[in-house]
């Protein structure tokens, strides 16, 4: 796939010819090698675009810049790619250096041959800038919708041949949707619990794509992003163990359907296993708690979508490690808002179950 860079100032397209070489040589020597001009398909871009594309302010590209399946990188897009490879990637990485390398180098490189992935990188980079107050949310939304459109096009036309690119796309889109939802949840009158269901539903719908990725393909370095490093399970602190016991007690006493009780019992056990991997409720990154959403049964998924009380309580419990997760600029204080929102929805019969999560986010509920 060829990459075309559009000059926003002159409204012309740049292609790799001698005229272009002369025009951009003065803007950034690193963009050109002594060899024939090459498109910006590797990480030399991170070093060169500071003097090349970044000297121009962000400008809104024309609609043609978002054509599918083609891809045009204008100055705005170049700045967003640069920001991704300099700052955003760090916030998405696990603590291991090899994961940082994957996010900074391998994923952007793969995006040049997968337009839907490139659009998602532009979108999450833009949203990160939005969270820093340096960009309008409209631009992030523009790339977000372009990413979804491009992915849909690739899916319908049989172009989803790259399993690793599909995997990363699903991860990035989930994070973006979380970030957009967390921003919406801050608005007065918006229910933070209801805002959760859009990214949650999107994640659950992406599971078939994730399951379609063969084990052999996951051995590609990018596959490490979903290959969990399982820590040894540790004993739970007394307050966490007691909170889970109260969940089990309410399941036995308040849930009438035997089938639902079995569903909740399994979900509580999965929650216990998650907490035993991080008994201090401080996971090293957001991916570990996200696995609970991915691995939950379809039966519990249905109960959660029905807004059943015990399912919502368990969502509040899950929010505790999410609330404490490092580098969660895309979540903000949404987890705390969800916990309080769940407490507001429930009647006093569920107060005992909500004491622990409310305390963990330093919030209380006064019904008087």
Major sheet description? 3 strands, mixed
Backbone shape:
globular
Q: Helical element count?
A: 16
Order of H and E elements: EEHHEHHHHHHHHHHHHHH
- Residue-averaged pLDDT, rounded? 76
- How large is the share of residues in beta strands? under 5%
Task: Please report the distance between the alpha carbons of the first and last residues.
Answer: 64 Å
The Rg value, from CA coordinates, equals 23 Å
Spatial order of the strands in the main sheet? 2-1-3
- Can you count the beta strands? 3
Question: Can you tell me the residue ranges where pLDDT is under 50 for at least 5 consecutive residues?
Answer: 1-69
Helix/strand/pairing class, anyone? mainly alpha
The proportion of residues forming helix, as a percent range, comes to 55-70%
């Amino acid at each position: 796939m060829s990459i075309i860079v559009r000059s926003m100032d002159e409204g012309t397209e740049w292609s790799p010819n001698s005229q272009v070489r002369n025009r951009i040589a003065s803007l950034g020597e690193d963009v050109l090698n002594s060899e024939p001009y090459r498109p910006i398909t590797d990480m030399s871009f991170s070093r060169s675009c500071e003097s090349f594309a970044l000297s121009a302010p962000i400008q809104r590209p024309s609609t043609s810049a978002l054509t599918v399946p083609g891809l045009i990188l204008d100055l705005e897009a170049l700045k967003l790619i640069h920001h991704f490879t300099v700052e955003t990637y760090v916030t998405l990485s696990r603590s291991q250096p090899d994961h940082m390398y994957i996010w900074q180098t391998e994923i952007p490189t793969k995006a040049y041959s997968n337009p839907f992935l490139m659009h998602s990188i532009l979108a999450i980079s833009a949203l990160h800038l939005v969270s820093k107050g340096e960009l309008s949310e409209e631009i992030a939304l523009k790339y977000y919708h372009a990413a979804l459109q491009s992915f849909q096009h690739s899916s319908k036309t049989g172009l989803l041949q790259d399993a690793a690119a599909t995997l990363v796309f699903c991860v990035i889109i989930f994070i973006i949707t979380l970030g957009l939802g967390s921003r919406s949840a801050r608005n007065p009158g918006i229910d933070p619990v209801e805002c959760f269901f859009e990214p949650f539903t999107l994640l659950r719908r992406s599971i078939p794509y994730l399951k379609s990725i063969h084990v052999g393909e996951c051995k590609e370095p990018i596959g490490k992003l979903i290959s969990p490093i399982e820590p040894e399970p540790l004993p739970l602190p007394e307050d966490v163990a007691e909170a889970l016991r109260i969940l089990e007690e309410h399941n036995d006493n308040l849930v009438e359907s035997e089938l639902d009780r079995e569903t909740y019992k399994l979900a509580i056990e999965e929650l216990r296993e998650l907490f035993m991997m991080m008994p201090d409720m401080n996971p090293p990154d957001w991916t570990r708690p996200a696995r609970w959403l991915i691995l939950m049964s379809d039966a519990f998924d249905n109960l959660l979508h029905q807004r059943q009380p015990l399912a919502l309580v368990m969502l509040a419990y899950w929010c505790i490690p999410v609330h404490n997760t490092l580098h969660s600029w895309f979540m903000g204080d949404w987890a705390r808002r969800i916990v309080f929102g769940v407490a507001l929805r429930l009647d006093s019969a569920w107060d005992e179950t909500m004491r622990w999560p409310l305390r963990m986010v330093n919030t209380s509920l006064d019904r008087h």
